[in-house]
Amino acid sequence: MSVLYGILFSLFTAAVVIAGDLLIKVAADGARAITSPPMIAGILLYAFSAILWYFAMRNVSLGQAAVAYSMLSLIVLCGLGWAIFGETIGYREVAGIGCAFLAMLLMMRVA
Question: What's the predicted TM-score (pTM) here?
Fold first, then answer.
């Protein structure tokens, strides 16, 4: 059960950071000041994610937490880049997503 909690905290941490990334991208694309509301909100979400990361690492190894976090971040940020910002998803991105899934499978351990 501890591993499940750790992975869930890792994924929730990634979701919070993704929201922060999205806000920072909105601020950057709009050429807004670094003190703009989207930028400040993004920074606050990053700070909150550090607290969540602490709980993730209490329950799983750093490698397991990092792979879960990285996998979700990669997949969601690629999707958001495509859906919201019109970025392209090519073969390299698809290969990266496939590698993220493979890494997640390889890093999973049952305690």
Answer: 0.72
